[in-house]
Design goal:
About 40% of the residues lie in helices and about 20% in strands. It has about 375 residues and is α/β, with parallel strands linked by helices. β2 (about 35-40), α3 and β3 (about 60-65) form a beta-alpha-beta unit. The two termini are about 35 Å apart. Bound molecules: ligand G4F. Ligand G4F binds near residues 97, 199, 221, 318 and 323.
């Protein structure tokens, strides 16, 4: 592409470009013809394997740069230099479990990052559109019905507390300063690029290793916890659509279907060729092998029917189980034409297959 066409390309900043959503969004924006400036934290140690695995790491229109989200000066300079049309703020310490262990770092990091970007937009590039990656964790688990944009908030962990504050910061800048700021209230979204500290990828990577004889048992926390799990590739499409709307607004992105951790385990192991049955209660619950497909039986002759391959380890319990189980994406569907294209079964199969391929190739 020559320099003149660069002038007509949209410029987007993606914070947290090395993460799951950052990588999928980068690929999507590059496909749409954007110049993408993706930020990583200063220090130079960020692993860009996700961009590699999507084949965009060396794309001529992707520019990876170090940016300190906790510095207002850095954010002011970033906006001044790049003059982006769109900012997608995805970077955050996003593990709920870790937020209980590191509340100060989690809350301060999340709040400062969003405030600095909003302030930089207000002062330097007031027409820049800003997307804040919000979370379903801001809702109450006590709310058993579908959660919409109007559902009462009740954050119950440090991560959710911080994210509720950045939700309101975005709304405040919209109402007070006319910043085009929108929040995507994102329910859980997963993929083969998910970090294994989150439960879905922990399960699929273990199922793959057990089916290939490289591990024998998977330990989990609360098997009864329910989540509305979608595919991250679908969610970045919704994120982009949120910033293309005529007006800034807030949208729930969800699949409107919930499943338990136990359901996800069953699906993942079935995808790896191992049938399971659950037995026992609470911390004594286990999953035993009830069926082994021929290929797995040949590969792992030591795997036997009746063998325990999943058990509960209370160390993975959280101080309080949070997060509502199911979201209603009607507003996004009606206003943005967004809907998910990948079922839970397809998602699970995609993740297990990718993990099996990784284990086989020694990855
Ligand atoms: O996979 P998780 O760690 O995700 P969680 O806490 O729902 O948060 C994710 O989704 C949110 C909504 O989009 C995001 F805001 C957040 O940033 C993150 O992306 O845990 C899911 C469920 C929990 O109920 C947890 O208690 O799985 C349960 N669980 C059971 N055993 C486990 C384990 N979670 C983890 N991480 N590890 C376990 O061994």
């Amino acid at each position: 592409m020559d320099d003149s066409s660069n002038l007509t390309m949209k410029t987007a900043v993606i914070t947290g470009v090395a993460g799951q959503d950052g990588a999928y969004l980068t690929r999507m924006l590059l496909d749409k013809g954007y110049q993408v400036h993706g930020t990583v934290r200063p220090g130079g140690s960020t692993d860009l394997w996700r961009l590699d695995s999507l084949g965009v790491r060396n794309h001529p229109h992707l520019h990876v740069l170090q940016h300190d989200l906790c510095s207002l000066v850095d954010s002011l300079a970033l906006m001044d230099r790049l003059q982006p049309q769109e900012v997608y703020h995805l970077a955050a310490q996003s593990s709920v479990a870790r937020s209980f262990e590191e509340p100060h770092a989690t809350v301060n990091g999340i709040q400062q990052g969003t405030l600095n970007l909003l302030e930089a937009i207000r002062k330097v590039t007031p027409t820049t559109r800003f997307f804040e990656a919000g979370t379903s964790e801001i809702f109450s688990t006590k709310h058993s019905a579908l959660c919409t944009e109007l559902t009462a908030f009740h954050p119950r962990n440090p991560y959710a507390l911080a994210k509720l504050s950045t939700y309101w910061a975005t709304v405040n800048y919209r109402e007070s300063f006319n910043v085009f700021g929108s929040v995507g209230i994102l329910f859980n979204h997963e993929s083969p690029l998910r970090d294994p500290r989150f439960v879905t990828r922990k399960i699929t990577s273990s199922a793959a290793r057990i089916a290939l004889g490289e591990a024998s048992v998977l330990e989990l926390g609360n098997l009864a916890a329910r989540r509305d799990w979608g595919y991250a590739g679908d969610y970045v499409e919704g994120i982009w659509r949120i910033l293309q709307a005529d007006q800034p607004d807030d949208f729930v992105l969800a699949t409107q279907r919930s499943a338990s951790v136990r359901d996800f385990v069953r699906l993942a192991f079935a995808g790896a060729g191992i049938g399971l049955a659950f037995q026992g209660q609470a911390e004594h619950e286990v999953a035993v092998v009830t069926d082994i497909v021929d290929g797995v039986a040949d590969q792992v002759p030591c795997l036997k029917l009746g063998q325990v391959v999943v058990r509960v380890n209370p160390d993975f319990y959280r101080p309080i189980e949070t997060g509502p189980s199911i979201g209603d994406p009607s507003k996004a569907r009606l206003a943005l034409g967004w809907q998910v294209s990948t079922s839970l079964e397809e998602l699970c199969k995609l993740m297990v297959s990718a993990d099996i391929a990784r284990v086989k190739s020694g990855g």
